[in-house]
Design a protein that fits this description.
The chain is mainly α. The chain is 73% helix and 0% strand. It has helices at 3-10, 17-32, 39-46, 51-57, 60-89, 96-112, 117-129, 137-157, 166-188, 200-219. The radius of gyration is 20 Å and the shape is elongated. It starts with a helix and ends in a 5-residue tail after the last helix.
Length: 224
């Protein structure tokens, strides 16, 4: 879908101006980047006047931050909810594989969802190359809360796991999942018979099995 086609969808009178600005801005920032998008572009895409950007958000910079704050909030809540679900369904000790699998699906799902995942991945790639967000935003809004929730859950699922190893385990798991998303995006548009074709469920099963084995090796004292 082209920008013009997407813009027609977000300019519906039935949608509030603030919401239309958020939707249009995410599309434009993903396609053109922060520096390549003007306030005039944003207003035109959202079907409102230029003053609306300042009225609702206080400028382009704060609008950009608000897009990310909304996205990061959804990612954080989805991931933590996946952890809480496993804990609530278990008795005293959740199954390690169940915890890892629930988290993996919650992590990957929003990033590959066709309704907005690819666009968000573009936005994320642009932010990594040309940062405009506060340096602490990812840490405070997503990393610390998610790490805290996973620390408590892993301590229940595998109490023998040394507490000092938990951050390493979580970061390793997240790294595998991020690479899976990037690889899926890269291979999606390629038709090459020499490349392996993996379904997301197959990859997640491998990551869960691999990570659980590593955790149990740590817990058994087989890895220093």
């Amino acid at each position: 879908m082209t920008i013009s086609q997407e813009n027609s969808a977000v300019s519906s009178p039935a949608t509030g101006v603030r919401d239309r600005l958020l939707e249009a801005a995410e599309q434009l920032f993903a396609e053109r980047g922060f520096d390549g998008t003007s306030i005039r572009d944003l207003a035109a895409a959202a079907g409102c006047n230029i003053a609306s950007v300042n009225y609702y958000f206080g400028g382009k910079e704060k609008l950009y931050v608000e897009i990310w704050r909304h996205r990061l909030h959804l990612l954080r809540e989805t991931r933590i909810a996946s952890i809480d679900k496993v804990l609530s369904e278990s008795e005293d000790r959740p199954v390690l594989e169940d915890l890892l699998r629930s988290f993996a699906y919650a992590f990957i799902g929003p990033l590959v969802d066709e309704s907005g995942g690819p666009r968000f991945m573009k936005l994320m790639a642009r932010e990594m190359l040309n940062p405009h967000l506060p340096a602490s935003m990812f840490v405070e809004d997503v990393i610390k809360p998610t790490l805290s929730a996973m620390r408590d859950a892993l301590a229940k699922a595998c109490p023998e796991l040394p507490e000092s190893k938990i951050p390493l385990v979580v970061f390793s798991l997240v790294g595998q999942l991020l690479h899976t998303v990037r690889l899926k995006t890269m291979l999606h548009s390629m038709d090459d018979e020499e490349l392996p074709k993996f379904e997301p469920a197959e990859i997640i099963d491998h990551i869960v099995t691999f990570t659980a084995a590593g955790i149990r090796a740590y817990a058994g004292g087989k890895v220093e």
